[in-house]
Amino acid sequence: MEKGILQYIVTSKKQGRKLLAILLDPDKLSLDEIPNTIEKINNCSVDFIFVGGSTVEIGTTDLCVSTIKNYTKIRVILFPGDYTQLTHTADAVLFLSLVSGRNPEYLIEQQVRSVDFLKISTLEIIPTGYILIDGGVETATQRVSNTLPLLQTELEKITNTALASQFMGKDLVYLEAGSGATEAVEPIIIKQVSNAIDIPLIVGGGIRTKKQLNNAYNAGADFVVIGTAFEEDNEFLDGI
Ligand code: 1GP
């Protein structure tokens, strides 16, 4: 197995191997459910498990990840809504900066607050430009971050935001329609962004069918994240 997670993602992109992660929200998943849920995940071709949520009670993520780790070898990447969700029990953290918004709390404040934890941690830190795009409903990310998403029609602004993320030194760009979105990120946006940037592109939010999943890959997503569709139907990824 490759050493670094970022290195694995970059190599996969170069080789045209598409990646998939399941997002588990510690607030919605009880500890009792973890063994069965993880068994399902172990049986599909999932590259990573993401753990995180917009609002998670302190201590819950730590317990959730350490329990997950008892049942799988799949690497766990934290996808934190805030710095209190950091835990040493995971393998890596997406060090997110909400670059679609203009709220300093999620552009730099949360990142500064996480430093006391991260400087003594072995977590791999992956700098990520996080771009929230209107997914048809007001999402928790929008509510909690108190920022507005970019509209799906703002193609140039989305592309420039992604490219600015790369110029700022981010290693990944994440196009996020928000968990439970009724409209996933349009393939045309994925295509334009993926053509513009050199770094790997993650896409998530509102992907509920295999067709949408394939559309995202075909448009240029290197990595797709599925949350709700798997939560509602643990068989969703069978055969993938
Ligand atoms: C990950 O927030 C998404 O980017 C997950 O969204 O729950 O809609 O799949 P869903």
Topology:
Blueprint: H1 5-15, E1 19-24, H2 34-42, E2 48-51, H3 60-69, E3 75-78, E4 92-98, H4 104-113, H5 115-118, E5 124-132, H6 140-145, H7 155-167, E6 172-176, H8 187-196, E7 201-204, H9 210-219, E8 223-226, H10 228-232
Parallel strand pairs: 1-2, 1-8, 2-3, 3-4, 4-5, 5-6, 6-7, 7-8
Helix pairs in contact: 7-8, 8-9
SN-glycerol-1-phosphate binds at residues 23, 176, 178-181, 204-207, 225-229.
Please characterize this protein's 3D structure:
The chain has 240 residues and is an alpha/beta fold. It has a single domain, classed as Alpha-Beta Barrel (TIM Barrel). Helices cover 37% and strands 18% of the residues. It is built from 10 helices and 8 strands. It has helices at 5-15, 34-42, 60-69, 104-113, 115-118, 140-145, 155-167, 187-196, 210-219, 228-232; strands at residues 19-24, 48-51, 75-78, 92-98, 124-132, 172-176, 201-204, 223-226. The chain has an 8-stranded parallel beta barrel, surrounded by 6 helices. Strand 1, helix 2 and strand 2 (48-51) form a beta-alpha-beta unit. Helix 7 (155-167) runs parallel beside helix 8 (187-196) and helix 8 (187-196) packs parallel to helix 9 (210-219). The model has no long low-confidence stretch (mean pLDDT 96). It binds SN-glycerol-1-phosphate. The site of SN-glycerol-1-phosphate (1GP) has 15 residues, from strand 8 and helix 10.
